[in-house]
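[audit] Reproducing an earlier prediction to check determinism. Same input, same settings, fresh worker. If the tokens differ from the archived copy the diff job will pick it up downstream; this log only records the rerun itself.
[audit] input (149 residues):
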Amino acid sequence: MKVSEQVLCAIDDAEAGKFNAALLHACISIDSTSKRLYPSEKRVGVRYVNCLRKYCWLLEPMIGAGLNLVDTRFSNIKWGKIASPDFAEIIYEVFRCSHAHGDEVPPSFSVTISKGPFLSHWTLTEGELHMPDRVVWALLAVAVFAEVN
């Protein structure tokens, strides 16, 4: 499926309130984008995380004002060998890999519906991260605005 088709599917799912499905399509659109951005890198995780880190400048304002994705480490999360992962690692390891490998996203991670036009609510507790649905739109922005697409 083309990146443009993934983006359209994500938009349709998000508008229908199916944020897990929307996030799946958004994650796959980043997968395709990262493959184009780093064609010589054979390790999917490396190119995926590097792609998201490259576009932190775009992700930050789309998710919510004041969040610094370059320096923020989620010390409440330990995922496999990664203690205190950053945003890019969480999106790849938890959401992209779970969806791509046919696993369910653990209930301690989710996308929640935002209230109003500006409030992006994050819930962080020990071992849990619940992000605003704006993360879907932020990931789609990377796929849409990446120069390789």
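[audit] rerun output stored. Observation attached for the diff report: The CA atoms of residues 44 and 72 lie 23 Å apart.
[audit] end
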